[in-house]
Structure formats: C-alpha cells, structure tokens
Design goal:
Distance between the termini: 18 Å
Number of helices: 13
Oligomer: single chain
Shape: globular
Strand content: 15-25%
Number of domains: 2
Structural class: alpha+beta
Radius of gyration: 23 Å
Helix content: 25-40%
C-alpha cells in the first residue's frame, strides 16, 4: 500500500471557489461562523459548521447537526456547486501570506501508514473531538477537512511542485486574513507515478495540524474494514485527505500564555521567585523573544525580558527542551502552581497571529495578571519529538497561514 496516492477530488465548479472556500471549522466559534455565512449560501461552513443553519444554542454534537451537514453537501452536489474530478489526481496547493509562501501536495494519505507510525503524530487527542470528526465523516461519507502533514524536503518532490506553479492555477482566490490560495491539478499519469514513488521512499511524514481528523479517519477505516467482508485494502476509506508541505517552508508562530493570578504572591515576591532561575531585565518596549530560552513577560503594565539559566535546559530531551516546557517546568508550575494546563482555567493561550497586543490587552483589562511571550517552536523540534515517539505539551505550535476548507474534499465509497 503506497504512503500516498492520487484521488478524484470533490472541488468547487469552475469559477465557484471564492464562494465555497472557508476557514477551517475549528478556528471560530458558532457565533463567528453564523456571521461568516451571512449572505453566503455556498460557503463550505454550511458543511463544516452546519449548526449555522439550525437554531442558535443547539448542541454542536447533536445528530441533527450531522444530518444537516449531509443535507447541505447533497444540495451543493445537486446544484453542481461542487463537482468531482473524473479521474484520480494530485493537487498542488500554494499559500501566500504577505511575504511567506509555502507549496504543498494535496493527496490521500495511507491510514495503514498512520496506524503503523510512519505518519507520525506529536499531540494527544480528546475523545469528544475525535468522536465529532468520526460522526462528520460517516454522515458525509467524505473527508472534508484536510490533515496538515509535513515531509522532509526532497528535491524530487520540491522540483515537481515548483515547476507546476509556473503554470496558470485552476484556482486563485484571496481568503480570510488576506491569504492567497492557489490550486493546480496534476493528472499526468507519469507525474502521478513519480510523486507516489518519491513519497514511498520517505521514512516518515509528520502531522503538523489535524490530529483529531487523522485519528478519526483511522477509526472510520477500522469500522468499515470490519463491516466489509470483501475488504481489499485499496478502498477509499483506507486513506485520508491531506495537504503535505516540505518542512523547510513551514511557518510556526509563537503560542503565548496568559495567567489569571500570581498564585497568592505580590509582584515583588513573584519577581523574586522568577529571578531564582531566570535573569530578569525590565524593558521600555514590548519583548518578543529572538532566541530559545528567552521569554517576554508583561506584568503590572511593564515588560520584562527573561532568560533561563542554561543549567535548567535539558538539551538531550526533545520535549523538556522545548520553550513551552522550559516555561512550564521552571515558572508556570513551580511558581504559579499550574501543573495541568489542559484543565486549569487559570491559564489561557494566545496565538502569535494576535501579536504582543493580544497579551497586553488581556492583562490591562484586568482579566489576566501576567502574560508570557515565547519563542516559536521550530519545525525541527516538532519532528524530533515525533521521531522519539513523544508528545508535545498542549498549545505548542500555531501554524500560519491556515488551509482553507472546501477547495478539495475526499469522497469515500
């Protein structure tokens, strides 16, 4: 079974991509989704967030939500807003956000490779979110949210993607956040076969984003295999929708922290404790870290630059040496008393896309007491954690730009 394979994608009809494409289902709340679909009858949010077409306050996991998603998909098919390519293809997908450009391949990735650990993950999943994606896939009989994968850059693949983008794209639209989305269709059999061979030669792929979607695809495949006495291994349910980018084009932004209180300390006492392991330097300007083990801290209307003493950096442990771990293990847990950031509501997380202003706003409002700006996790660190079979702390990575939903979906048969 190949690591990836081409598939006949379900896509917006010619000229309809701008009407259909939508942000990923999980980057907005229900109220924001309802606002986004106002006046947009063909937005893919009608499929990925179908509660927008049901009464406000409905449980997003209610059976009628999934039924509405299936109804909306059938409506888009019957109106030929979405059409399926007649033969298997790969698709080249380029994202441009300001000066940043990344180009990847849309493909069907092997569930068997995922189950065997050849498609490597680095996060825990939450059962409720997995269950939600399983129900969504089963209701639609399709995978509509792509899993964001990364491959170790390989010249044989990179050159094909680069050459393809010299041609006019089939889709060229501007999406949320002024991100440009371009798509090219690859259907030449020799090119398809060459890309499949190149990926088969890779030791591993890495899940960057979409752990719940990939886990759900695995569960759906297992259930359908068990129910299919004629199972042969090449059925479409044995693969999941993915977009695969080279590791050296990834843009991981910082994922910052805000904390509600100082765990019973006053500012002076808190700063004294921080100074036990960090150098603490007041700054007249906001502090955005420029290297690992350096942190910005906003407290009492003032910024500080923190640098962790090198003796507390465990260089050989790929998880413990992450900046998110260094901050947690040397400050957030021992000083602020937050040992389980997944469940402790005293801590919250702010994506780097919101800038340092997203931190100062939360503290100045009185909602939070202290904020921490982190150096962004590097792609090499993520890969090292996955290679070691470990998992990263929660909220370690924030990838930008985001993929769009609706440009290519994978139908199951």
């Amino acid at each position: 079974m190949p690591l990836i394979k081409p598939f006949p994608g379900l896509r917006p009809a010619a000229g309809r991509a701008a009407e259909v494409a939508a942000p990923p289902y999980d980057v907005m709340n229900a109220e924001e989704a309802r606002e986004m679909v106002r006046g947009k009858p063909w937005s893919f949010l009608h499929i990925s967030r179908p509660e927008v077409d049901l009464p406000e306050g409905i449980d997003p996991y209610a059976p009628e939500v999934y039924a509405k998603a299936a109804e909306n998909l059938q409506r888009m098919l019957s109106e030929a807003v979405l059409v399926r390519d007649p033969r298997p293809c790969y698709y080249v997908y380029r994202l441009t956000m300001a000066a940043h450009v990344q180009t990847g391949l849309v493909a069907a990735a092997s569930v068997a490779a995922y189950d065997a650990g050849r498609i490597m993950k680095h996060e825990f999943t939450r059962p409720a979110k997995e269950d939600d994606r399983v129900r969504q896939i089963d209701a639609l009989n399709a995978q509509t949210g792509p899993v964001f994968l990364v491959y170790p850059s390989m010249a044989a693949v990179d050159s094909v993607l680069s050459e393809t983008t010299k041609n006019a794209p089939s889709v060229d639209i501007i999406g949320e956040g002024n991100v440009r989305h371009e798509l090219w269709v690859l259907d030449d059999e020799q090119t398809l076969a060459g890309l499949t061979r190149s990926f088969d030669a890779m030791a591993a792929l890495y899940v960057a984003d979409g752990h719940h979607r990939s886990a759900a695809a695995s569960r759906v495949a297992a259930a359908r295999k068990a129910a299919n006495p004629a199972h042969g291994g090449e059925e479409s349910y044995n693969y999941f929708l993915s977009v695969i980018f080279p590791h050296n084009q990834m843009r991981i932004m910082d994922y910052n922290r805000v904390v509600r209180d100082l765990n019973g300390l006053d500012e002076a006492g808190f700063l004294a404790k921080v100074g036990d392991r960090f150098s603490v330097q007041a700054s007249e300007t906001p502090v955005k870290p420029i290297k690992p083990a350096q942190f910005g801290m906003y407290l009492g209307g003032r910024w500080y630059r923190l640098e962790l003493d090198g003796q507390y950096i465990p260089q050989q442990d790929p998880v413990a040496r992450l900046d998110v771990s260094l901050l947690a293990d040397n400050l957030i847990d021992p000083i602020l008393g937050i040992s389980d950031p997944r469940r402790d509501d005293r801590i919250d997380f702010v994506g780097g896309i919101r800038g340092l202003e997203g931190l100062t706003k939360r503290v100045d409002s009185g909602e939070m007491r202290v904020a921490f700006a982190l150096y962004a996790t590097r792609m090499e660190d993520l890969m090292a954690v996955a290679d070691a079979g470990e998992v990263m702390p929660p909220k370690s990575t924030w990838f930008e730009p985001k993929l769009a939903d609706g440009l290519v979906s994978h139908m199951l048969e």
